[in-house]
Design goal:
The chain is built from 13 helices and 9 strands. It is α/β, with parallel strands linked by helices. The strands form 3 sheets. Strands 1-9-8-2-5 form a 5-stranded mixed β-sheet. Strands 3-4 form a two-stranded parallel sheet. Helix 2 crosses helix 4. The chain is globular and about 120 Å long. The protein starts with 19 loop residues before the first helix and ends in a 7-residue tail after the last helix.
C-alpha cells in the first residue's frame, strides 16, 4: 500500500496484452474469393440481367391494332395524336404492359430495354448466320452501291432516316436476308439495325404469349395490319422511327411473290378483290369473288393501272420531316427454302430439307444459294416539291 491505493492480488490483475503475432492468430482470417465463386456470381448476374431484360421487353411489347381488323381502309384514317391516344387506352387494358409504347428516341430507351434488344438481335443474328452458313450460303455483290449502303448505316443518321426496299421472296426474308446484310460485329448492335414490320396475324396475334411478342418487338419489329390502308395507326408507329433518323426496311410488294417479275398487283374484275386485302366483314364481297394472291389465277389477270407495288412506302417517304435516303436491293434464292404453291398461294418448307443439309458429295441436295445486290439511291425531292407547289405543304410525322 502506497498512500490509500489498493493493489489487488496478482491473480486478480487483468491479463497483459498479447503479442501482435499471437493476437492476429485469434482474428478470423478474411474469406478468399475463389474462381468458382466468381463464376457463380457472374452466372447469377447474367441470368438476372437476362430475366430483367426479357421482362422489360414483355412490358414494352408492341400490340396489334384490333380496331383495324374489322374496319374498312377508309375508316382507319387517323391523326398521329389519335393514334397515341388509342394505344394509351389499348395498353392500359393489357396485363403487365406499359402505358405508352417504347420511346421513339434511343436516348430515352430504358437500360434493360436496350439490353433486351441486344439479346434479341444478337441471338437471332447469330442463329441466322449459323443456319445460312450450314444449310447453304449467301453472297452480297461488293460494289459501290453496297459500300455506300454501309456508309449510310454506320454513319450519323440523326438528321436523315434511311429506307431500304426489296422484293419479298419468302416469309423468312426478314430476318433471313436482312440479318446478313451487315458485318457481324455491327449486325448485333441495335442502333445499326433496321426497324421492320410484320403482319400482326403472324407475329403479334392473340394466341402468342406476351413474352414472345416482347422478344419479337425487342428485335425491332412492329406489327402492321394488311388491308387496313396507309392511314392506319400501326403505320404511324413505324413512321415515327423513321422520323427520328432510324433505318427502316419495308417490302413494298405487300406479300410474297416468287414470280420473275416485281410485284403481283393485278386489275380485278368488278366486285372481286385480292385475298390479302379481303377482310370478309364488309358484307359486299362474297368468298367466291376473292382471288387468292400469288396464284396462277391472279397471274392471268391484266396488270393493275395503279402499279405493281403498295404505296405505303411512299407515305413514309413523303411525310417524313426530312426526306429519307432510299436504297433498294434485290435478292434471289430464298424461294428454295419456302416454295410457293401456285394453286393456293401458300408457302411451306421445301421437301427433303434435312437431306439437303448434307454435303453433295454425301448425296445431299443443293442447299440455299442466296444472292443480294444493291442498287443506286432513289431520290424523290423533285416529286415532293412538285406536289407541294400544286397542293400545298405536306404534313410531317413527329
Amino acid at each position: 500500500n502506497q498512500g490509500n491505493a489498493y493493489l489487488p492480488p496478482v491473480h486478480q490483475l487483468p491479463p497483459l496484452p498479447l503479442p501482435l503475432a499471437t493476437r492476429a492468430s485469434h482474428i478470423m482470417p478474411p474469406q478468399t474469393i475463389t474462381l468458382r465463386t466468381c463464376l457463380r456470381l457472374t452466372n447469377y448476374t447474367a441470368w438476372s440481367v437476362f430475366a430483367g431484360s426479357m421482362a422489360t421487353a414483355w412490358y414494352y411489347r408492341p400490340l396489334d391494332d384490333q380496331s383495324s381488323q374489322n374496319d374498312t381502309p377508309q375508316a382507319t384514317a387517323v391523326t398521329p395524336q389519335a393514334s397515341l391516344e388509342y394505344y394509351q387506352t389499348r395498353r392500359s387494358e393489357e396485363i403487365f404492359c406499359s402505358s405508352e409504347p417504347s420511346p421513339w428516341s434511343r436516348e430515352h430507351v430504358p437500360v434493360l430495354l436496350e439490353w433486351s434488344r441486344r439479346i434479341s438481335i444478337g441471338l437471332t443474328t447469330l442463329a441466322i448466320r449459323l443456319f445460312m452458313n450450314t444449310y447453304g450460303s449467301y453472297s452480297i455483290h461488293d460494289d459501290k452501291h453496297y459500300r455506300h449502303f454501309l456508309e449510310v448505316v454506320l454513319g450519323d443518321r440523326r438528321s436523315q432516316g434511311l429506307v431500304t426496299v426489296s422484293n419479298h421472296r419468302s416469309l423468312f426474308d426478314d430476318p433471313g436476308v436482312v440479318s446478313c446484310l451487315l458485318p457481324l460485329h455491327v449486325a448485333v448492335v441495335p442502333k445499326y439495325n433496321r426497324w421492320g414490320i410484320c403482319s400482326q396475324e403472324y407475329c403479334f396475334n392473340q394466341a402468342l404469349p406476351g413474352i414472345v411478342k416482347g422478344y419479337i418487338g425487342a428485335g425491332q419489329v412492329l406489327p402492321i395490319c394488311r388491308g387496313a390502308g396507309v392511314d392506319q395507326k400501326l403505320l404511324f408507329d413505324f413512321a415515327r422511327h423513321l422520323a427520328t433518323g432510324e433505318w427502316v426496311h419495308i417490302f413494298p410488294e405487300g406479300g410474297v411473290w416468287q414470280w420473275d417479275e416485281l410485284g403481283g398487283r393485278r386489275q380485278y374484275p368488278p366486285g372481286a378483290v385480292s385475298s390479302i386485302d379481303f377482310s370478309g366483314n364488309n358484307g359486299e364481297t362474297s368468298a367466291a369473288q376473292v382471288i387468292k394472291s400469288a396464284t396462277s389465277q391472279q397471274r392471268a389477270l391484266p396488270l393493275s393501272s395503279k402499279g405493281k407495288l403498295k404505296w405505303g412506302v411512299a407515305k413514309l417517304i413523303a411525310h417524313s420531316p426530312i426526306t429519307p435516303e432510299v436504297i433498294p436491293f434485290a435478292h434471289h434464292g430464298m424461294e428454295k427454302l419456302l416454295p410457293q404453291d401456285e394453286k393456293t398461294g401458300k408457302t411451306k418448307l421445301r421437301k427433303n430439307m434435312l437431306w439437303s443439309c448434307l454435303p453433295q458429295w454425301l448425296g445431299g441436295e443443293e442447299g440455299l444459294r442466296v444472292s443480294v445486290k444493291f442498287g443506286a439511291t432513289i431520290t424523290f425531292d423533285d416529286l415532293i416539291n412538285e406536289h407541294e407547289r400544286q397542293h400545298g405543304e405536306l404534313w410531317k410525322y413527329k
